[in-house]
């Protein structure tokens, strides 16, 4: 069954700790033009409002940096993603940082409020911190917690002021549905860099993890069957792909937080191809390409382009 891909570009990098991810989506488009790819031919990407102006001023929110701007982008994504889904399109979001993924999940739930949402989180990081537990204050480590309506006060190490807490709960409630997902409807693939607070949370919630070693041992095709079997009770699925899930030695260090011993690009390609073919998969997000950090010119964007072309071919 073909899917009508439409590209949404979110240049936000306000949730990351390094600069340059806002250039990632257009680095991928530049790679396409350089190679003669027709991926974007006739598919003019739709740009979400840019909120990176928040980087030009100090943030007063120590444990949820620039959360006021994050709320803006969550609302914009909620509107854009839900509109695309209601129009029977397949949104592929090219985003700067991963922190805005909570807005994407809000948009899916707004479009399908009565459907159970499964999340395939392909990433080196668990991204399940909260303002109470974060060591950095960077919200790109928190999007799953917003979708779960999670505070994790059991692992609290930070004291929050009232305004931060109010904005945090506003993030959790974007779209008017909270929580948007259940812990048993999340599956991690490739996660290998976590903090103790996240480990405790994952264990307490019983979130399923598939390691890089599991993918390598069982093969990417068998891994996808494992994923879809595990999420069989879900009505729709969202695939969130962070390029740092891949091994930096096999791609490049063109991402904000590279982690060794990741997926091979060929494994990532098979995972994405098979997942987007599944009729339940309604949205794909690709994040964290950072050409400013790329030690091999624009290699991470080129690898990402190859993955997107494979996705496009898979759903035609």
Give Rg in angstroms: 18 Å
Oligomer: single chain
CATH top level assignment:
Alpha Beta
Mean pLDDT: 97
The succession of helices and strands, N to C, reads: EHEHEHEHHEHEHHEHEH
Low-confidence stretches: none
Main sheet strand line-up: 2-1-3-8-7-4-5-6
Beta-sheet strand percentage?
Answer: 5-15%
Distance between the termini: 7 Å
DSSP strand count: 8
* Number of helices, where a helix is a run of at least 4 consecutive DSSP H or I residues: 10
Helix content: 25-40%
Please provide a written account of the structure.
The chain is of the alpha/beta class and 316 residues long. The chain has one domain (5-315): Arginase, Chain A (3-Layer(aba) Sandwich). Helix content is 37%, strand content 13%. It is built from ten helices and eight strands. The protein has helices spanning 24-35, 67-86, 101-111, 143-148, 162-172, 196-205, 212-218, 220-230, 265-277, 299-315, and strands at residues 5-10, 46-47, 90-95, 117-122, 186-189, 208-210, 236-242, 281-287. It has an eight-stranded parallel sheet with strand order 2-1-3-8-7-4-5-6, with helices on both faces. Helix 9 (265-277) links the parallel strand 7 and strand 8 (281-287). Helix 1 crosses helix 10, helix 2 runs parallel beside helix 3 (101-111) and helix 9 packs parallel to helix 10. The longest helix has 20 residues, at 67-86. The mean pLDDT is 97.
Write the layout of secondary structure elements.
Layout: E1 5-10, H1 24-35, E2 46-47, H2 67-86, E3 90-95, H3 101-111, E4 117-122, H4 143-148, H5 162-172, E5 186-189, H6 196-205, E6 208-210, H7 212-218, H8 220-230, E7 236-242, H9 265-277, E8 281-287, H10 299-315
Parallel strand pairs: 1-2, 1-3, 3-8, 4-5, 4-7, 5-6, 7-8
Helix pairs in contact: 1-10, 2-3, 2-5, 7-8, 8-9, 9-10
